[in-house]
Amino acid sequence: RPLTKRICCIGAGYVGGPTCAVIAQQNPHIEVTVVDLDEVRIAQWRSSNLPIFEPGLSAIVEVTRDGTDGRQPNLFFSTAISAAIQQADIIFIAVNTPTKRMGVGAGSASDLGYVESAARMIANAAPADKIIVEKSTVPCGTAERLRSIFASLAPARSFSILSNPEFLAEGTAIKDLLNPDRVLIGSLKDDRSMSAARELASVYSWVPHDRVVHTNLYSSELAKLAANCLLAQRISSINSLSAICEATGADISEVANAVSLDQRIGRHMLKASAGFGGSCFKKDVLSLVYIAESLHLYDVANYWRAVNSINEHQKSRFTSRVISALHGTLLRKKITIFGWAYKKNTGDTRESASISVAAQLLAEGCELAVYDPQVSTNAQQIYRDLEDIGTNIRERVRVWDNAVDACVDACAVLILTEWDHFKTDMLADTSTLPENCTAASSDSGIDMLDDGLDLPTAKSVVHDAFNKSDRVDWCAIASVVQRPRLVFDGRGVVDPVALGALGFRVESIGKASVT
Ligand code: NAD
Ligand code: UDX
Hints:
Elements: E1 6-10, H1 16-26, E2 31-35, H2 39-45, H3 57-66, E3 75-78, H4 81-87, E4 90-93, H5 113-125, E5 131-134, H6 142-153, E6 160-163, H7 173-178, E7 183-186, H8 191-203, E8 212-215, H9 217-248, H10 252-260, H11 281-294, H12 298-325, E9 334-338, H13 353-363, E10 367-371, H14 379-385, H15 393-396, E11 397-400, H16 403-407, E12 412-415, H17 425-428, H18 435-438, H19 443-452, H20 455-467, H21 474-478, E13 486-489, H22 496-500, E14 505-508
Helix pairs in contact: 1-3, 4-5, 5-6, 9-11, 9-12, 11-12, 12-13
The structure holds nicotinamide-adenine-dinucleotide (NAD) and uridine-5'-diphosphate-xylopyranose.
């Protein structure tokens, strides 16, 4: 086959956009066109205001899409789907595969409707044989289904179908794409399919050969689901242990560190949290559960279902701890949530733990203030995330673009995203703090701020010190929240001792309550 000249990617989302930007950057000789039905999303990809926030992405898009460093642009975004399909040698399918909402398998099976619609577009538009690449995460057997769709809709053409699942994580997508642990390519074993697999491998020109793994189609499809399920399982395992820590006095970070020193266990994905979020883990675990049930492997299905159950339990446990510390009633109390994104360095809020925690707190009658360094600029997203809850959400939830303002009169501050922004490392470096803040090894320093000093002057001093970093101004927050200045750290980001010195009482996941 001739060298690939054109790639079309169907789906301009969190996978399609960054993946194609990196492919275009690394292969100046390949024209990459990303297409989507969503006109707004494509318009954003063509603008300076990209639809997703991902560190390092905009710099790559500027070069490849706009040719800012003098190179020929080779990354395009378009809604002209048929035209892009017609011209491409390789077509990626990177559309969403959410959990089915109705019909057989509702609530657990993957909805392959978008994959099938993409396949139909290809069958209708492609004039000749093409290489079709499944990038989306799909149940095993999906390539087989695609083959039968093509066989019925385009019997005269023979497409080579490959599985090439994506393993990037949001927030580190560019790093993951540039330096992947592996590139997985599943194919049939006939000469034509193997040649297609080699052609696809050559697109990953920057990845060392020994990291490109070839398997059969079923293995590739299942390996992607398995990877996400095993990662989610590790988090649920550590979170289940965090409950035991809170009840016994063991400290989950010490436990995690001790076990991670065993090289067979390793240190990744062992951070206890208020629960995992994101668009992948929950739905991929559910997809595996459905596959197992379809195969009548009910014990296997139950085993994996428990990974999601523990995650729900963890979010509820966290909320219960807050309610209990606030004397069992939240009526008319104000609670501040720090962090709405499901993890740091993304603006994505899909399945964020914040949504579940907020819903449970609102059901208790409280008012919420929300601050997120990325999502606060898109307050409507937060209201959309809560719209299922119904009544008067907009009156009881206020979104702030400033952390200190969000905390005024709050009974508690809940940290639900591990943004570096919330860290207390600046507090450890006492040379950067104004005197009236460092003096506070007990409540007395804060009292000076609250009661003794001219507050505007004191606050401006504190702000000046903190403006040197992008860290939240915990000194100023101490002066505006209600006593006993409760902080619930659902991500292990703050140092309880440093905040304790400012008069806060910190309750951390996986650590016994401070009495
Ligand atoms: P997304 O929702 O951000 O993007 C999917 C896009 O596909 C949407 O813009 C949608 O409009 C478009 N689309 C759907 N059907 C279409 C059609 N027929 N024609 C044209 N466009 C169509 O989804 P995502 O987060 O990018 O995920 C895509 C796939 O990759 C999923 O299967 C997901 O499980 C998998 N995945 C996601 C991640 C992640 O971090 N988000 C990582 C690895 C794998
Ligand atoms: C995940 C997989 O990591 C990635 O390989 C796959 O391609 C897509 O799904 P993503 O969901 O973007 O990526 O982020 P990830 O870093 O895995 O975090 C998922 C959730 O787990 C986040 O809410 C995160 O805060 C939480 N998490 C992660 C923990 O609670 N503890 C950890 O130790 C790690």
